[in-house]
Amino acid sequence: MPASEAAETRWVNPLFEPLEVIRNGPFLALPEGRLLSADEESLLASSDEGRTWEVVSPLAFGQHPKEPASFYFLRTRSGVLVMVYLDLVHSEFHWDDERGEPVEPCRLELWAARSLDDGQTWVDRQCLMDGRNANFFGLIQTSTGRLVLACHHLVPNPGRWIIRSFASDDDGQTWTGSNWIDLGGHGHHDGATEPGVTELSDGRLLMLIRTNLDRFWYAFSEDGGRYWRTLLPSPIDASSAPGYLLRLQSGRHVLVWNRLNPEGGTWKRRGPDVASELPTSWYREELSIAVSEDDAQTWSRPLVIARQVGGQLSYPFVLERRPGELWITAGFAFRKDWEAPLPLRVKVTEEELLRELG
Asked: Is 332 inside a domain boundary?
């Protein structure tokens, strides 16, 4: 299919307005109004809502924006800038398809650093996990001031992904790891993967976990992410793709993700294969959004944001640019499979979204 014809299959819900921002994020909104982001060489800032960007300072720790959900910034309440990232420069991945096991060398290290001068210089740079780690969707500061990061790690025998969190009570100077969350599985995309994290109104933490089990799973922590002792399937059907979970300033939660099946249809499963020991939906042609009013216990009906027939819209990022103003981008947005990029960058207000959802 010619690219011009494939592009015509992109449908965007008219509720969502186009953004003029020229990057996919992740973005950090600073109190003075600027946005921060990064490329593979520099810390960047924008003073015109993401239309143009200027270099703040050199920054080449191994981060790379072409791999979505591989780094995030957070500015703590005391003004410290914290960056958590995957070192993609030194990434290596080797997998034995016959045995279904990772083969050394197999690494993608997870690192953290912090800046006391708004990104001009960086200190306390440290490796949080060696071995092979991958995309993550959660870095927050809780109501107590604690920083919490959710991440996942590749293990052998059987080859699969497991999850944990890291917490810091000193603005990212030191970090403590939690217990591991293991859902089993066998395959290079199986297990518990690509987690997000949020704080609930009662102070508990909720982790959203990608699985190959037809839905997200939830994990709960009652001690700020030190231990995760409650694990259960969520009410949210999902394909084998991550979601972005965000608590808004209103207290509501929004979730942007790929559903298990197309709206009104069924998607053919793939496998079992080297990726997953169970037949799995890999549906990524629609990106949807839902809202929760009760700390993710129940959710509104899903609303399709955009659709790319024959292509892909996945790995979302959501920013509450201002109270009630949501920016949504797709890290992977292609006209056909993994070919012919066509960015998706849109915005919607919380008020408009609630009105549409009824």
From this structure: no
Residue 2 has pLDDT above 80, yes or no: no
Within a domain: 5: no
β-bridge mates for residue 168, sequence order: 147
Residue 179 lies in a domain: yes
Q: If you write DSSP's letter for every residue of 108-149 in order, what string do you get?
A: B-EEEEEESSTTSS-EEEEEEE-SBB---BEEEE-TTS-EEE
Total domains in the chain come to: 1
Return all residues near 79 (Cβ < 8 A) that are at least 6 apart.
none
Average pLDDT score, the chain: 96
- Separation between Cα atoms, residue 147 and residue 174, nearest integer Å: 10
For the stretch 267-302, pLDDT in tens is 999 999 999 999 999 999 999 999 999 999 999 999
Tens digit of pLDDT for each residue in 117-169? 999 999 999 999 999 999 999 899 999 999 999 999 999 999 999 999 999 99
Q: What is the CATH number of the domain that holds 185?
A: 2.120.10.10
* Domain that residue 44 falls in: 21-281
DSSP run (H or E) holding 314: strand 312-322
